[in-house]
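Before going further, learn to read the protein records used in this course. The integers have meaning only within a learned vocabulary of local backbone shapes. To see the layout at work, look at the sequence and tokens printed below.
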Amino acid sequence: MDEPTAVMIAEVIKNAQDSIEPEPLSIEQERAVLLLMTGATDAVVAEQVGVSRMTVNRWKNLNPAFRLALESARRQAFERMRDRLRGLAEKAVAVIEGHLAENSLPAAIAVLKGCGFSDPNLIRQEMEDRERFLVRAEQAAFVRAFRREIKDYAAETLERDAED
């Protein structure tokens, strides 16, 4: 490979790397990310930071570094909330158990809904399906027992006829 080609390739690679690495955020953009994380609207953020609402909107939609910082902040906040909720799960189960021990209907309904039994029609259908299954199982058991009795009777009859 000749030197001009190698230099050109190195320059293309450097430009590609420069375009991948986002530029650092300005102080205004950092403040905007923090304000957006508190739930502030674009208009409030713009007023607090000293830019137009359109600038905030442009940062959110067109600035890769800003979008990356905002998404990273959101992801971190979500992970913190998820960890906190996991820590509360044991307490929540204990509270539900306490309510169920007191025969609390709302607690029982909440547990059933959480397990996917929220539609009364589905619960009714499930109960009817189980009832039909039990009826069929009882009928099948009756038929098997009846067939056994017929076979036994036939075997006894054949034995008696053979003895006579």
Observations:
- The CA atoms of residues 57 and 109 lie 44 Å apart.
